[in-house]
Amino acid sequence: LMMSADGKKLYALGTPDNTFSLYVYDIGTKIWKKLIGIGEVYYPAFSDDRQFISYVHFDRTKKAASLVVLKIASLQKMCSIDISDLIQVDRFKGTGTMPLNGGDAVVYTDATTLYIFDVKSGTIVQKTASGCTENNLMLSGDQSKIVAANGQFIFIHDLDGRLESVLPVQTGHQFFSKSFMLSQQNKVAVIWARGDVRIVRTKDGKQIGRFYLYNNGNDYLFLSDDGRFEGTEEGMKQLYYLKNRQYITLDKVFERYYTP
């Protein structure tokens, strides 16, 4: 899903069995409209400027795969780059795509490598050994970095695809399925890890703390790794001390003694 820049339309890629069509929903009239049938595609992604869609189109008859960038306003294909050998159509080893630089470039990733293609020429302009798991590809909050992740590491690149830093992430799980982001200043990474949210410092990969949500997101609790905490009243009730097998809730002790 993607909201238009003026907030009046909602774009959606709908699919039965990966056979995608692009739809638009007019928020004023509350009417859905099919814009174009795209076919069997994989790894679709909207650009952050809300003007382009990228995806891998698969032609089963020809057993060929193409990297496509589509301009939403005109429904014009900006490129259709043959990547059949790269993606290995018998294995389909790709993991993600992303339009870049106002539609002038497009990112394609597999498990081990990040590629940047020039849209006009269709050539690879950058190849970096830093792949990601499926759909774990995005721009940073300030749109100054390309970020890819594989569950154990977050790879941070400049917009030309050059690798700047590698952030080790020890969440205890092998992947976090596009549930991570960088802060606006790229100082911390926020990672969803099955039940809680980990806050990790980007300069050294150290976990700062965990963020918990309760009551459908209406209450929260943040607990830092050095013992400090913050939260809503209901969230704070989730914290307690255990002494001689007895539970002691925080409201009985922390205001009397200290508030870390």
Could you give a short description of this structure?
With 260 residues, the chain is mainly β. The chain is built from three helices and 23 strands.
Structural class: mainly beta
Kindly report the spatial arrangement of strands forming the biggest sheet: 1-2-3-4-5-6-7
What's the helix count? 3
CA gyration radius, whole angstroms: 22 Å
Write the layout of secondary structure elements.
Elements: E1 2-3, E2 9-14, E3 19-26, E4 31-46, E5 52-59, E6 64-71, E7 76-82, H1 84-87, E8 94-100, E9 105-110, E10 114-118, E11 124-128, E12 137-139, E13 146-149, E14 153-157, E15 163-168, E16 180-182, E17 188-192, E18 197-201, E19 207-214, E20 219-224, E21 229-231, H2 233-236, E22 240-243, E23 246-249, H3 254-257
Describe the structure.
With 260 residues, the protein is mainly beta. Helices cover 5% and strands 52% of the residues. The chain contains three helices and 23 strands. It has a seven-stranded antiparallel sheet with strand order 1-2-3-4-5-6-7. Strands 16-17-18-19-20-21 form a six-stranded antiparallel sheet. Strands 8-9-10-11 form a four-stranded antiparallel sheet, with no helix packed on it. Strand 1 (2-3) and strand 2 (9-14) form a beta hairpin. The relative contact order is 0.07.
List keywords for this structure.
260 residues; mainly beta; seven-stranded antiparallel β-sheet; 3 helices; globular
